[in-house]
Amino acid sequence: MSEILACQILILDGTTISQDVNKRAVGQVLLNLVYKHLGLDEKDYFGLMFTDDKSNVRWLDPLKLIRKQIKRGPYNFKFKVKLYPIQPTYLFEESTRYYMSLQIRENILQQRLPCSGDSFALLAGYIVQGEFGDSEVNDPGYLDEVPFLENVPNEIIAQVLELHKRNKGLSPAECDRKILDLSSRFTLYGLDFHDALDHAGIPILLGISGLGVSVFCGEMPQLTKLNHFPWVRVGSVNYRNKQLILEMLPIVGQTFEDSIIFMMPSKIACKETWKSCIEHHAFFRSIQPPKRPNRTNLFRRGSTFRYSGRTQLRLLQEGATNTLERKPSRRFERLSSRNRFSNRQSHARQTL
Question: In this structure, what are the phi and psi dihedrals at residue 205, rounded to the nearest 5 degrees?
C-alpha cells in the first residue's frame, strides 16, 4: 500500500495544483502546502472543500487524518473562501483580496450571491479594468472573452463598456478592493447556507455568518429573510441526531422560546452546520480559539471538533503590526479569467 496520498486541489483561478502528503498526514499539512504555494498569509479565511463517499460536501478538518475524512481516493479538493470578513478593509494582503474577489465572482455566477443589474455591471466594470487595463475602445467585442459576461443582456454589456472607460487608472489590486467593497453590501454576502426544515416541516435555508444565524425561505436567488439570531443572543448551539438546537438567552421585558430547533437533512448535514456555527463564532467573536473542547462553553457537545485557526481579532492585530513595519506582501501570480477554464496544471509537487 502506498505511503503517499496524491492530492489534487482546484484553485479559484481555475488552475489545479498537485500536492503529495504522507498517508498519516492531518489536514493541516495539506492546507499549509496550499497556502505556501499561493503565497497566503491571511490563510484563516480559506479552506479546502471535498465531497465524501456519501456525496456530502464537507470542509477538510485540519486536526484529523486526511485518510480518515476521505476513506478512499481520489483525493480531490477545492480551494474556497470559508469565512468572509464583515468589512473588506479588514484584509491587509493583496493576495487575500485577489482570491476573495475570485470567490465573489464565482458566487455571483452560481447565483449564490444575487445582485441587481446595476451592481452586476459595476462589478463587471472593475473585473474588466483589472484584466484589460485602461481602454477607450467603443466596440464591446473584446468583452466576449470574459466568462463573467457570458449570456449577459446587451444593455448590461453597454453599461460595462462605459464603466470600463470610467475606471481608467485603476490597478488590478485597486479593482479587487472595489469588488469586495461593493459585494460586502449585498444582502447575502458572507453567508454559509445550509438546507433545513422549520418546526412545521417547511423547507428553509440557514445562513451562518460572523453576525449570527439567519433564516430564509424561498429558492435562490429569490430569498426572503424570516429571522435573524445574532450571536449575542445565542446561549448555546447543540445538535442531536438531525436536530440543530439554538438555545436563546432571555431578554428583559420580552418573551422568547427557550430553544429553537431546526431539522437538517441528515446527521452528517446537521453536524456540518453545527461545525460552521462553531467556526464562525470562534473566528469573529472570540479573542483566541479554545485550546480544547469545554462542555460548559457555548457549543457544548461530545464531538472533539474545535476551531484551530487564528481569530479575526488576531489577524487584525498582526495585520496592523505588519503595516507599521512596512512588511511587503508575498508575490503571487494573477491569472486572467479568460484562461480560467484552460485546465492549466501547476506542477508543484511536494512530499511530506
Answer: -120, 135
